[in-house]
C-alpha cells in the first residue's frame, strides 16, 4: 500500500491533470471564436497556469496547485505525450514530399530555411554575450538559435491549411512541401547541435556521431522492414491491441536509444515515425491503420500534450523579463517574422506568384507552434539558453502562430473562399490526416 505522502502526491498529480485539461478545453473553445488553431489556445492555457498569470494572484497558487513533489510526475507524463506527438509527426511527414518537387519549389524551400537561419544566427551572435549561459560556446549557441528561428511547425501548418480550405491548392501543397524540407533540415542541424553540446569534447562528439550513424542504419535496414511486415496483414479491430503495443513499445525504445547515445529522446520518437511504412498492399490496410491505430494514438497525444504545455508554462515567467527582456523579445519577434517572410514570400513572388499569394505562402510558413516549443525545451534542458531567453522564444512561437489566422483573413482567405489551381489527389498518402495537438483535450 502506498504511503500517505505518496498517495497525496499521486492525488495532486491527478487533480493537476484535470485542471489542465479543463482549462485547455475552455481555451480551445474560446480560440475557435478568435479564429485561432487549438495549439495557440493550449499554449496560452499553459502560460496562464504558470507564474506569468496564476503566479500574480495572491496566495502562492502555483506552488499549491503544482507543488514541487508533483512536478516530476507531471514532467514524465508530458514527456510521454510529447513522444507520441513526435512519433505521429514523423509518421505524417512523408519523405516522398522531398522528392520530385521541382526546381522552383526546391529553391524556395532552400531559401525558406536559409534566410531565417542566417538572419537568426546573426541575431544570436549579437545576443551571445548578454544572453548565452556561462560555458556555452558561441558556435553552439548561434547554431541552436538559428535553428529555432528557422523552424516551421509542420503539424500546425497542416491543420491551418485544412481549416482554410487550402489542402488541394497549389499554395497549400507548396507550403506543406517546403515545411517538410525545412523541418527535416532543422532537425538534422538540431541533432548536430545536441551532439556537440552533450559530447564533452571532440572525442565524445565522434563517439556520438558514430553511434548516431549506427542507430540510423539499424532503423532503416532492420526496424523499417520489420514494421512493414507487421503492418502488411493488419486487418483492423482484431489485431489493433497487439499492434498498438508494438508501436508504442518501439517508439519508447527508440527514444531510449537516442537518449543513451547522447541525443534527446525526442529524436528517437520522431525517427521511429519517419521509418513507418507508407505504402500498403491494399487501400483497406491504410483505412484500418487510420481508424484503429493512428486515431487512438492521435487522441492519446491530444489528451497528454496539454500537460506538456502546463509544464512549459511553469518555466515561463513573463513578468521577470523587464525592459531589457522586452527589447530582446521585440528583436527576436522581428527576426522571426522578417526572416520567414523574406525567405518565402519574395522567392515565391520571383517564381511567378502574385503578391497576395506570396504573402499567403509566407504567412503559412511563419507558423511555429508546438514544434518550436519542442526545440526550445531541448535547448533549455541542455542549458543552451537561459530562462529569460526561453520565455522570449516561447512568446515568439505563440505570437507567430497566433498571427496566422488574422493575416489569412486579411488576405481574404476564409475557408472555402479560396479559388486556387487544384491539385490532383495523391495516389498514396500517410494513414493520418490530423495532428495530435489539435485533438481536443476532453
Report the radius of gyration as a whole number of Å: 21 Å
Structural class: mainly alpha
- DSSP E strands, number: 0
Helix content: over 70%
Q: What is the subunit organization of this protein? A: single chain
Number of domains: 1
Query: Which runs of at least 5 residues are low in confidence (pLDDT < 50)?
Result: 415-442
Q: What proportion strand?
A: under 5%
Classified by CATH, the class is Mainly Alpha
Arithmetic mean pLDDT = 82
Tally of separate helices: 17
Question: How does this structure look, described?
Answer:
This protein has 442 residues and is mainly alpha-helical. The protein is 73% helix and 0% strand. It is globular, with a radius of gyration of 21 Å.
What keyword list fits this structure?
442 residues, Na+/H+ antiporter like fold, 0% strand, disordered C terminus
Element layout with pairings:
Blueprint: H1 4-33, H2 38-48, H3 61-65, H4 71-92, H5 103-131, H6 138-150, H7 154-163, H8 170-199, H9 202-232, H10 240-261, H11 265-274, H12 283-314, H13 322-350, H14 355-365, H15 369-381, H16 387-402, H17 404-410
Helix pairs in contact: 1-2, 1-12, 2-12, 4-10, 4-11, 4-12, 5-6, 5-8, 5-13, 6-8, 6-15, 7-8, 8-9, 8-14, 9-10, 10-11, 13-14, 13-16, 15-16
Can I get a quick summary?
The protein is mainly α.
Amino acid at each position: 500500500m502506498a504511503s500517505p505522502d505518496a498517495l497525496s502526491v499521486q492525488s495532486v498529480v491527478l487533480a493537476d491533470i484535470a485542471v489542465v485539461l479543463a482549462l485547455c478545453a475552455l481555451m480551445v473553445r474560446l480560440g475557435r471564436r478568435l479564429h485561432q488553431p487549438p495549439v495557440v489556445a493550449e499554449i496560452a492555457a499553459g502560460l496562464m497556469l504558470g507564474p506569468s498569470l496564476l503566479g500574480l494572484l495572491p496566495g502562492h497558487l502555483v506552488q499549491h496547485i503544482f507543488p514541487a513533489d508533483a512536478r516530476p510526475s507531471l514532467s514524465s507524463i508530458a514527456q510521454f505525450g510529447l513522444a507520441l506527438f513526435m512519433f505521429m509527426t514523423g509518421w505524417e511527414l512523408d519523405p516522398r514530399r522531398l522528392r520530385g518537387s521541382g526546381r522552383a519549389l526546391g529553391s524556395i524551400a532552400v531559401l525558406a530555411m536559409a534566410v531565417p537561419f542566417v538572419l537568426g544566427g546573426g541575431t544570436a551572435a549579437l545576443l551571445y554575450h548578454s544572453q548565452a549561459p556561462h560555458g556555452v560556446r558561441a558556435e553552439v549557441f548561434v547554431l541552436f538559435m538559428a535553428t529555432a528561428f528557422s523552424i516551421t511547425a509542420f503539424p500546425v501548418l497542416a491543420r491551418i491549411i485544412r481549416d482554410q480550405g487550402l489542402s488541394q491548392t497549389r499554395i497549400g501543397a507548396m507550403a506543406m512541401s517546403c515545411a517538410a524540407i525545412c523541418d527535416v533540415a532543422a532537425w538534422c542541424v538540431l541533432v548536430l547541435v545536441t551532439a556537440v553540446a552533450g559530447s564533452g569534447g571532440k572525442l565524445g562528439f565522434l563517439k556520438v556521431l558514430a553511434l548516431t550513424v549506427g542507430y540510423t542504419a539499424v532503423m532503416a535496414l532492420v526496424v523499417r522492414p520489420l514494421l512493414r511486415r507487421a503492418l502488411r496483414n493488419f486487418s483492423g479491430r482484431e489485431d489493433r491491441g497487439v499492434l498498438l503495443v508494438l508501436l508504442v513499445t518501439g517508439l519508447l525504445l527508440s527514444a531510449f536509444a537516442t537518449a543513451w547515445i547522447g541525443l534527446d529522446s525526442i529524436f528517437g520518437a520522431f525517427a521511429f515515425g519517419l521509418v513507418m511504412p507508407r505504402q500498403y498492399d491494399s487501400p483497406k490496410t491504410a483505412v484500418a491503420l487510420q481508424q484503429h491505430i493512428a486515431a487512438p494514438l492521435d487522441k492519446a497525444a491530444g489528451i497528454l500534450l496539454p500537460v506538456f504545455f502546463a509544464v512549459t508554462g511553469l518555466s515561463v515567467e513573463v513578468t521577470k523579463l523587464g525592459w531589457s527582456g522586452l527589447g530582446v523579445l521585440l528583436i527576436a519577434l522581428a527576426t522571426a517574422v522578417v526572416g520567414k517572410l523574406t525567405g518565402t514570400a519574395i522567392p515565391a513572388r520571383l517564381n511567378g506568384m502574385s503578391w497576395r499569394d506570396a504573402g499567403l505562402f509566407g504567412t503559412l510558413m511563419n507558423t511555429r507552434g508546438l514544434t518550436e516549443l519542442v526545440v526550445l525545451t531541448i535547448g533549455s534542458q541542455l542549458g543552451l539558453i537561459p530562462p529569460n531567453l526561453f520565455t522570449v522564444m516561447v512568446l515568439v512561437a505563440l505570437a507567430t502562430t497566433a498571427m496566422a489566422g488574422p493575416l489569412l483573413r486579411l488576405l481574404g482567405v476564409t475557408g472555402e473562399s479560396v479559388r486556387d489551381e487544384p491539385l490532383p489527389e495523391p495516389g498514396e498518402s500517410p494513414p493520418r490526416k490530423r495532428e495530435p495537438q489539435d485533438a481536443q483535450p476532453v
